[in-house]
Amino acid sequence: MMLEWSDSEMLLPLCNKELMLLKLKEAVRNWDLPSEELVAYRSFDPFVELLECPMPAVQMWALWGMLHVCSRNAKRYIPLLVDDGVMENVQRIMDPSCEGVTELAQKLLNAAKDFQMSGK
Question: What's the CA gap between 71 and 75, in Å, rounded?
């Protein structure tokens, strides 16, 4: 939704894109990883566009979603991240100016590294 929403368009009174991005960023920062796997993915291809967009809140949402499934089922999802080439995108968006993105990206990179070091 954020990718298609023009910056000047009002969705509801007093609800513009900038405000919604701020609310999304705050929400993602406060989410804990659930104790069970809530979703299942066949591919991470749809996440590439989200990682490449210039909106840190959207990048954070995508990183949190990937981290969630990888933390619940690393055996299935870490190889998928590597096979889909998503890890390169994650490394590319590491930006010290956006703390939330960097923190989640680093957690995802660490999860992949730990999984690979454990011998799968």
Answer: 10
Pair 81, 66: CB distance under 8 Å: yes
Token pair listed for 2: 């954020």
SS3 93: coil
Residues 6+ apart with CB under 8 A from 41: 69, 77, 80
Percent of the chain clearing pLDDT 90 (strictly above) = 42
- Radius of gyration of the chain from its Cα atoms, rounded to whole angstroms: 15
What stretches of the chain adopt beta strand conformation (E)?
Answer: 10-12, 15-16
Say whether pTM exceeds 0.85.
Answer: no
pLDDT tens, 47-95? 888 999 888 999 999 999 999 999 989 999 999 998 888 999 999 998 7
Where on the phi/psi map is residue 13: left (φ > 0), alpha (ψ -120 to 50), or beta? Answer: beta
Whats the size of the chain, residue-wise? 120
